[in-house]
From TrEMBL:
<dbReference type="InterPro" id="IPR018376">
    <property type="entry name" value="Enoyl-CoA_hyd/isom_CS"/>
</dbReference>
<dbReference type="Pfam" id="PF00378">
    <property type="entry name" value="ECH_1"/>
</dbReference>
<dbReference type="InterPro" id="IPR001753">
    <property type="entry name" value="Enoyl-CoA_hydra/iso"/>
</dbReference>
<dbReference type="GO" id="GO:0003824">
    <property type="term" value="F:catalytic activity"/>
</dbReference>
<dbReference type="InterPro" id="IPR029045">
    <property type="entry name" value="ClpP/crotonase-like_dom_sf"/>
</dbReference>
<comment type="similarity">
    <text>Belongs to the enoyl-CoA hydratase/isomerase family.</text>
</comment>
<dbReference type="InterPro" id="IPR014748">
    <property type="entry name" value="Enoyl-CoA_hydra_C"/>
</dbReference>
<protein>
    <submittedName>
        <fullName>Enoyl-CoA hydratase</fullName>
    </submittedName>
</protein>
């Protein structure tokens, strides 16, 4: 059975993480398939949004500890080299999610732990079921965070709460995640798939090129001064203004009709 299923529907690329028997523990095959899907989304103009979802009622339960147990039987130098490469592989995936010039949505149900939390936080929008639980359990296996968690989580919850979660091995409920700004929407478990589809449909019918500029500007803001950010905004706006979607947006507003964006 494939660890990842890929489906295209209505301009969206749905990436379904498919290891329900282990609550979608992150495997190397899953990481590679995700990277292939993101590469496809980047080059295919018909794809206007990417959705990442777990099968079987869970998102990602973290790293595959059974595989870890095999790896740590090797000499220490090999263990260090192997895990360094694994984390760098994850890092590449995280950067691909964040740099993709199209919206990436995480649909989070049930358990999400370790690298799964990192991946969810790297996505542009997070839709969660009310039974979702974000688990920070690195300290329980004697490890430190990976996948950019030490970058994204303290910026969301504050350094003190971050240290509490990472040092003591805590968890965050869906409602708490909503309060902290880690997720955008929380729905009843029975509704979350349908609500995600509604959101994705809106994104797929939006101005995709402009959405890409929104993501770029957000990334620039992490390290830019105000003067630099103003320049980035001027460049981005002028580039959007030269697109067919901008012309359609202005025309539809003046004509009092719904815009028909083509993502161009």
């Amino acid at each position: 059975m494939k660890h990842v299923e890929i489906n295209e529907s209505g301009g969206a690329l749905w990436v379904i993480l498919n290891r329900p028997e282990v609550r979608n523990a992150f495997s190397s095959e899953m990481r590679e398939s995700l990277k292939e899907a993101l590469t496809k989304a980047d080059s295919d103009e018909s794809i206007r949004c990417v959705v990442i979802k777990g099968a079987g009622g869970n998102f990602i339960s973290g790293g595959d500890l059974k595989k870890f147990a095999e790896l740590i039987e090797r000499p220490s130098c090999e263990v260090k080299h192997s895990f360094y490469n694994r984390v760098q592989d994850l890092n590449q995936l995280i950067m691909m999610v964040m740099s993709l010039k199209k919206p990436v949505v995480a649909c989070v149900e049930g358990s999400v732990a370790g690298a799964g939390v990192s991946l969810a936080l790297a996505c542009d929008l997070v839709v969660a079921s009310d039974n979702a639980k974000f688990i920070i359990s690195y300290s329980k296996v004697g490890a430190s965070p990976d996948g950019g968690l030490s970058f994204s989580l303290p910026r969301a919850v504050g350094i003190k709460k971050y240290m509490e979660l990472v040092l003591l091995g805590g968890s965050i409920s869906a409602s708490e995640a909503m309060d902290y700004g880690l997720v955008n929407f929380v729905f009843d478990d029975a509704e979350v798939s349908g609500k995600t589809e509604e959101l994705v449909s809106r994104l797929c019918n939006g101005p995709t090129y402009a959405f890409g500029k929104v993501k770029s500007l957000s990334a620039y803001s992490e390290s830019s001064s105000l003067v630099e950010q103003l320049h980035h905004e001027a460049v981005a706006f002028s580039e959007c203004a030269s697109t067919d979607d901008f012309r359609e947006g202005v025309s539809s507003f003046l004509e009092k009709r719904k815009a028909n964006f083509l993502g161009l």
